[in-house]
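So, could you explain the following?
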Amino acid sequence: MREQFSRSSLKQPPVAWPPQWRAIIGNALVERFIELGAFVLCLAASRQHVHVLVKMPRQHARCWCGLAKKHAWFIARRAGWQGKLFAKRGRQAPVRDRRHQLNTYRYILSHAKEGAWIWDWRRDANR
């Protein structure tokens, strides 16, 4: 019922990123978060959404996420993307403790088996 209402209220078809666009979008998000002073632990850009585990000041979370999405949109548009890229606002959930952080980290990296583009600080931060 809820999904049906959501789909009926869409003004355009749902956005689905082909594999070649996931790296462009993911890299742009990571780049902007780092420029803002955040520490990106991992990011997964899937067909329709992005998961990111990033350490940043809590009071800046919503603003910095918006700035990163905006930056990714400009980069994608420059590369030829047309139309919308993201939904408004995203869901941000603060990490409660170390266990929650590790579970989130593993969950995000597990999206690789679904074809997501993955960025992992252990592997990619020093490239």
User: Anything to note?
Assistant: The chain is about 45% helix and 15% strand. The CA atoms of residues 22 and 73 lie 12 Å apart.
